[in-house]
Design brief:
CATH class: Alpha Beta
Number of helices: 8
Shape: globular
Largest sheet: 6 strands, parallel
CATH superfamily: Isochorismatase-like
CATH architecture: 3-Layer(aba) Sandwich
CATH topology: Rossmann fold
Low-confidence stretches: none
Radius of gyration: 16 Å
Order of helices and strands: EHHEHHEHEHEHEH
Mean pLDDT: 92
Amino acid sequence: MALPVINSYAMPDRSAVPASGPAWTIDPARAALLVHDMQNHFVQAFPPDCSPVVELIDNIATLRELAGTLGMPIVFSAEPAEQRPGQRGLMRDIWGPGIGPEPDGDAAVVASLRPRAGEHLMVNVRHNAFLRSHLGRLLRSEGRDQLILCGVRAHLGILLTAADAFMHDIQPFVVADAVADYSAEDHSMALRWIARTGVVCTTNQLIRHLLHGKAAQSM
């Protein structure tokens, strides 16, 4: 099936963020930022100029700027265009052939978040960004054992990548108002599951903790 029609819904605020099981503290010297599948193909499924997509893009942009200022690796995952049936695998049975043959159209990262020089753009052929990619190797080479996740979709790519990060002894931090989903219910469900083996927080909470960690390093 194609991507579903997505109705506008309110981004979760701090009161809607589930309590996290782990008590990990983000450290900019240990963390990397993953911007998951923020491609036109996925983002244009959301109603424009309203929640949640407005906050989604704004909050990711804010996190990206801070991560760059703090010297954190910034990684973009992106599904390739025109995948072969064998490459697409079982996802073809559910979502069809995927992104069409226009690599600068639907497959491109949205204009306001396009990767810059020094940032990493990684091909992502499965929802789990670790699978069949060099994400794990990149994090090890950068000496990073914490991963901040933002992007789409919360109950698929974000949840599966966060779970696999945990399995690789990489602490996942999912930003509740910098991810989005098909519905408020899917969004909320994903955050509840992720909170069992990861930290779920808002953009403002994460910014405060990152700046506090940077201040502690300079003492």
